[in-house]
User: What shape does this take?
Amino acid sequence: MTLKIGDKCPNFSLKNQNGETINSAELIGSKNLVIFFYPKDETPGCTKEACSFRDMHDEFKNLGCEVIGISSDSVHSHKKFAEKFQLSYILLADTQKTVRAAFQVPANLFGLIPGRVTYIIDKAGIIRGIHNSQTDPVGHISAALNLVKTL
Assistant: This one.
């Protein structure tokens, strides 16, 4: 069974790139969320996606939206990645892949590569959009932004 539009966002709690615990329940109710799962820090497609979200981050913020990137990389890896590319949004370390499992993010290439999926979640905690494309990392940003504008 996979998550679909209209489902409730799974609750989660993970450490960000600064070692602070971020709890989804504290964000839901006050902001729309764009949560993007990506395979790995410092890889070409993931860097392109992360930098594209960075470049549009102010537009998301102006729409009352929090952008959150999640991968299985460590807090330390996320900190280096965020500093190197001046990423101004939250990166969460899902080292045990529990949140990826809760969101039922599929793996690609015979299960070897973690999936690249973006979820758009409204203030009530309901999933309003899902963009799943391993090969189009930049398409996630425009799809998410277009949907956030309608919330």
Summary: The radius of gyration is 14 Å. The mean pLDDT is 90. DSSP finds five helices and nine strands in the chain. Helices lie at 24-27, 44-62, 75-84, 98-102, 139-148.
